[in-house]
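Thread: quick sanity check before group meeting

JM: Hey all, I'm pulling together slides for Thursday and realized we never actually wrote out the predicted structure for the chain we discussed last week. Dropping the sequence here so it's in one place. If anyone has concerns about the input, flag it before I start.
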Amino acid sequence: MKTRTLLLLSVGCGLLILLAGGIKLFQVANDRADVPVLGLGDEARVGDMSVVVNAIRADPSGVEVDIEMAGVAGATVLDGWSMLGDGELSEPSAAVAEGACDGSTVVPADGSAVRCTLRFPVVEAEQYVAYQRGGELRRWAP
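JM (edit): ok, ran it. Output follows.
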């Protein structure tokens, strides 16, 4: 084959790859992976964990979220939680307070649910609380 033929074939292959990438990008852009918003008290299975958000309360010191979790024994309760408020994601506080989940709170080994309160920073408007585990995400709104 001549050099000119090889160059034309390589340019043609490049254009086909570019076209295929553009088509795939268009397909992905139109995919909607909506995560349903659950109500307070609704139980959800997230990965290998069973989770319930019972209440979301805002006060001058922050936002308190009452939760119940059961599933993987020894899993740290704070891992995977976040709150969207005022357009920003925030993580729960690991500070020790009575009734609050802190950095040492884990899911019990006997299969029972742990009940505690997550504490988030002060926000003017909380949109939702989310829990993510095992590649799955669930959201609860007040």
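AS: nice. Residues 70 and 112 are 6 Å apart (CA to CA). The longest strand covers residues 49-59.
JM: adding both to the slides.
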